[in-house]
Amino acid sequence: MINGVFYRIRTGVQWRDLPERCGPWKTVHERHRRWSAGGTWELLLQRIQAEADAVGGIDWDISVDSTSVRAHQHAAGARLAPPSSLKGGLASAIKIAWIRMELVDLPAELVQEARRSAARAAASPPSFT
Hints:
It is a single chain. By secondary structure, the protein is mostly helical. The protein folds into 2 domains: 1-60, no CATH class; 61-129. The protein has helices at residues 2-11, 25-38, 40-54, 88-123. The protein is globular. It starts with a helix and ends in a 6-residue tail after the last helix. The mean pLDDT is 77.
């Protein structure tokens, strides 16, 4: 089940397109939904980070600036809130999507880009000027 959730997050496929080896997609989706709502994923992340930090497995020094992280093409000029003309469930769904993009997706993209940039910098030979 956990591998099914990781597979979906890593590849971005729809829940219905999960490989059969991950189990029934409805079961994987429902468990992921319940764990997300109940805070299980956050608890797992905190415990894994605490264990890794205790043995020195996490380098918490990450420097991110605008010269090393590119903004997503849709980041420029985007509205901060859904249009007020939308009513009911559609407005709620759009608002939730905006919140997810601002609080989850964009920071995750920034961290991934920072890690890629740090890996490129570590792999390149030092330059002396």
